[in-house]
């Protein structure tokens, strides 16, 4: 162990999250932040998650569990469900115009999710403490008020855009930066426009 705290409870002197004035309006679809993203991109094996801005610093998202998402026969793989939660939580950063990556993701698997089910996700930022963004998410089966299947609490850590440029593979970084659609470039790295 590194000795760092693994607590997901925001410190007492945390601040409330701030929605960026230019954040998409509630109900607006966020679209894919990066076409090659496993969560929200347009890849045959991906989740194809569709995310919409909610009120405050919150989002909703849906994805349909397909045959390629199975763990046990006929049931979604837990890692796929965790990825859906991670992606939904990650999209909260666009509403704050902050660049952040998942530091910790804790997931409760409450009930199995069958193939063919539509998972309805809801995520919000609960508090911010310096670079640390505390957030939580819930996934329900087949309807926004359906039975809870998964819950997550997460800690995202704010980073500089250099995090991706220094750590990502040059091929994909260069291609993303060369995109003439500057909003898409900004979103690929969740950069302040
Ligand atoms: C690819 C995306 C594309 C584009 C962006 C959008 C993509 C959305 C996709 C979904 C999101 C993802 O999957 S993102 C991909 C998955 N995640 C990653 O690849 C991140 C890999 N990890 C790292 O790069 C690093 O560990 C960081 C950046 C998270 C932290 O490193 P650092 O910048 O050096 O900061 P460090 O000093 O260690 O930590 C800062 C503070 O946070 C705390 N802290 C750090 N990690 C933890 C932790 N696990 N649990 C508790 N606390 C922690 C420290 O104690 C410290 O608290 P204190 O001392 O200040 O109190």
UniProtKB/TrEMBL annotation:
GO cellular component: cytoplasm; membrane
Thioesterase domain segment(s): 74-138
TM annotation in the entry: none
Catalytic activity from the UniProt record: (9Z)-octadecenoyl-CoA + H2O = (9Z)-octadecenoate + CoA + H(+); octanoyl-CoA + H2O = octanoate + CoA + H(+); (5Z,8Z,11Z,14Z)-eicosatetraenoyl-CoA + H2O = (5Z,8Z,11Z,14Z)-eicosatetraenoate + CoA + H(+); decanoyl-CoA + H2O = decanoate + CoA + H(+)
Record's keyword annotation contains NADP: no
Phylogenetic classification of the source organism: Bacteria, Bacillati, Actinomycetota, Actinomycetes, Kitasatosporales
Example GO biological process: fatty acid metabolic process
SUPFAM superfamilies membership: Thioesterase/thiol ester dehydrase-isomerase (SSF54637)
Listed Basic and acidic residues bias regions: 12-22
Keyword terms, alphabetized: Apoptosis, Cell membrane, Cell projection, Cytoplasm, Fatty acid metabolism, Hydrolase, Lipid metabolism, Membrane, Transit peptide
Similarity field: Belongs to the THEM4/THEM5 thioesterase family.
Protein's recorded name: Acyl-coenzyme A thioesterase THEM4
GO molecular-function term, one example from the UniProt record: hydrolase activity
EC number annotated for this UniProt entry: 3.1.2.2
Signal sequence bounds: none
Pfam families per the UniProt record, alphabetical: 4HBT
Domain of life: Bacteria
Membrane topology summary: Peripheral membrane protein
Localization per Swiss-Prot or TrEMBL: Cell projection, Ruffle membrane; Cytoplasm; Membrane
UniProt region (Disordered), positions on chain: 1-30
